[in-house]
Design brief:
alpha/beta; 8-stranded mixed beta sheet; 4-stranded antiparallel beta sheet
Length: about 350
């Protein structure tokens, strides 16, 4: 049995706004084991980033309401004192944010910011910490790393800033690394290098990785398990093969169908899921995906439970009222793309 690093159970996060209560995360549960890469996927506004930021204590504010449980190595994070979270952040659980320009101080040199994180948790000389920072910057593909460590963030390109953030997140070899869209600003060559670095971290140090993304191509390269979120809820979870080869939720079909395939004929136009993500101030009754789903029926006005429905895969969970046999028949007839857009060639 793999060692369990993180256990999230019934996490709920709401924000009080002028328009009403926004339920950004609605009862999310998942686990992360040592050496495992868990990908959390979904459109913007599905609750991915709020979920992982809450684990770090970064959504705490007077207008936030947080409940549920998130245990890191058996230690509760949701209601942990801020002083304890300061000891945990960076050392035991680290995050690489999507937008590095807002995460790096514009008035401090990049190398100094990495050094600061190292020395905040370890009693090492400044030069030793700087040497480690330079080594990390080299590992993530920053050229002339020792010289670049003396530069300010505005002197880096967007991709280089992102790599610097990843180097900072890796600086203390955390047991859990959260990567929130870390390869968005990178070209494909550097993206592959970063993914390889993250995968090696997971394998060599047996760290657990939570990879937040909307790019299913990245998911296919790096993930062991996949969590699909929509409207603040988990709508499907399973192993990589289960999600890619036997997806059970219509929203997952739409995500997979919207990816261009090299092994199929070129479509007449890019496929897309119709409609827009729901407002989380006034979400749809029952299944949140119901207004956009071409297969919705009367029972969908009730909230479907997240449970196992595939007999041969008890750990494959989904939140859909359709029977497994119906889903497989629909997919075999229409394909992932055709299920949503009959005008697009399958």
């Amino acid at each position: 049995m793999a060692e369990r690093l993180l256990e999230v159970d019934g996490l709920q996060v709401s924000f009080l706004t002028e328009d009403g209560i926004v339920k950004a995360v609605d009862g999310v549960s998942f686990t992360l084991d040592r050496g495992e890469v868990l990908a959390i996927v979904g459109e913007s506004g599905s609750g991915k980033s709020v979920t992982v930021m809450t684990l770090m204590g970064l959504t705490r504010s007077p207008n936030a309401r947080i409940s549920g449980s998130a245990k890191l190595g058996g230690r509760e994070l949701v209601n942990a004192p801020e002083r304890e979270l300061e000891r945990v952040r960076g050392a035991e659980i680290a995050i690489a944010f999507q937008d590095p320009i807002s995460s790096l101080s514009p008035v401090r040199r990049v190398g100094d910011q990495i050094v600061e994180q190292i020395r905040a948790h370890e009693k090492v000389p400044k030069q030793q910490a700087l040497d480690r920072a330079v080594e990390l910057m080299e590992r993530v593909g920053i050229p002339n790393a020792r010289q670049r460590a003396q530069a300010f963030p505005h002197e880096f390109s967007g991709g280089m800033r992102q790599r610097a953030m990843i180097a900072m997140a890796l600086s203390l070899s955390p047991s859990v690394l959260i990567a929130d869209e870390p390869t968005t600003a990178l070209d494909v060559t550097i993206q592959a290098q970063i993914l390889r670095e993250v995968k090696q971290l997971s394998e060599k140090s047996e760290s657990g990785v939570i990879f937040v993304t909307h790019d299913l191509g990245v998911v296919a390269d790096i993930a062991d398990r996949v969590l699909v979120m929509y409207g603040g809820r988990v709508v499907e979870s399973g192993t990589l093969d289960e999600i890619f080869y036997d997806p059970q939720h219509p929203y997952t079909w739409g995500l997979l169908g919207s990816v261009a395939r090299m092994d199929r004929d070129r479509p007449r136009r890019l496929p897309a899921i119709p409609g827009l993500p729901p407002s989380l101030v006034n979400p749809p009754q029952g299944c949140h995906f119901r207004p956009r789903c071409p297969h919705a029926f009367d029972k969908c006005v009730e909230v479907p439970p997240l449970e196992a429905r595939v007999a041969e895969a008890p750990a494959h969970l989904d939140r859909c009222w359709l029977e497994v046999s119906e889903k497989r028949e629909l997919r075999s007839v229409g394909g992932h793309i055709g299920l949503f857009d009959r005008t697009v060639a399958a």
